[in-house]
Design brief:
Layout: E1 2-7, H1 13-22, E2 27-29, H2 30-37, H3 43-52, H4 65-73, H5 76-105, E3 110-113, E4 129-134, H6 137-148, H7 152-161, H8 165-171, E5 174-177, H9 182-203
Parallel strand pairs: 1-3, 1-4, 2-3, 4-5
Length: 204
C-alpha cells in the first residue's frame, strides 16, 4: 500500500515523515528528490541556468534556491517553465524508488511525501490512501518563517498559491492535526501507523 502524505507549507510534513521513518516505514519524498536532481553537477541544474539565467546559480555552481523561488513565484509563466522541467523527473524518480522499495523491502506500506499532491495531477492513481498533515494557518506561518527565514507576507502568498485547506481535508482518508508538541505528533503518527498496518493485514 502506498500512502501519499501531504499538507500545506509549515504543517509539519517533514517531521511527520521522520516519525514514520523511525517506525521503519520506507519514505519517498518528492522534496528530497528535487534537491538531489538540482544538486551541483546534475543535468537539470544546467538547464535551470540556461532557462532562468546565471543569477539562479551560486558561484560554486550550486542552485540559489532563494533566488529561483523569488524569480518564479510572482511570475506564473516562469513557474510553469520550472514545473515542466523538474516535475516529470521527480515523478519518474519517485515511482522508481517506490518500486525499488517494494522489491527490496516488501513493506506493509510506504509513504510518498508530495507537498503539491492536489496541485500536481501526475500522482493520481499512485496512492492508495491520502494522509493530510494539518494545522492552523497562524502556526503554518510561524513555522515557515522560522524554517526558511522568509517574510510573513511571502508565506501568506505561498499559502494562497496552494490548494485551499478545506480541499485537502475533504480529500483526505486520514488526517493528523499537528498543532501541538513533538511528543503529541509522535503519538498521532503511531496511532495512524497501527491503523494502516491493520488495514494491510485485513486487505491480505
Amino acid at each position: 500500500m502506498i500512502v501519499a502524505l501531504t499538507g500545506g507549507i509549515g504543517s509539519g510534513k517533514s517531521e511527520a515523515a521522520r516519525q514514520f521513518a523511525a517506525l521503519g516505514v520506507p519514505i519517498v519524498d518528492a522534496d528530497v528528490i528535487a534537491h538531489e536532481l538540482t544538486a551541483a553537477g546534475q543535468p537539470i541544474l544546467t538547464e535551470i541556468g540556461h532557462i532562468f539565467g546565471s543569477d539562479t546559480l551560486n558561484i560554486d555552481g550550486s542552485l540559489d534556491r532563494a533566488e529561483l523561488r523569488e524569480h518564479v513565484f510572482n511570475n506564473p509563466a516562469e513557474r510553469l517553465k520550472l514545473e515542466a522541467l523538474i516535475h516529470p523527473a521527480i515523478h519518474k524518480q519517485a515511482l522508481k524508488q517506490l518500486a525499488d522499495n517494494e522489491l527490496r523491502l516488501h513493506p506493509a506500506y510506504q509513504i510518498l511525501v508530495i507537498p503539491l499532491l492536489f496541485e500536481n495531477n501526475r500522482y493520481s492513481g499512485v496512492a492508495d490512501k491520502i494522509l493530510v498533515i494539518d494545522c492552523d494557518e497562524s502556526i503554518q506561518i510561524q513555522r515557515a518563517m522560522a524554517r526558511s527565514n522568509i517574510s510573513e507576507s511571502n508565506v501568506k502568498d505561498m499559502i494562497k498559491a496552494q490548494v485551499a485547506r478545506n480541499v485537502r481535508l475533504d480529500s483526505a482518508d486520514e488526517i493528523i492535526v499537528n498543532d501541538g508538541t513533538l511528543a503529541e505528533l509522535q503519538e498521532k503518527v503511531i496511532r495512524i501507523h497501527k491503523k494502516l498496518i491493520r488495514t494491510c493485514i485485513v486487505s491480505k
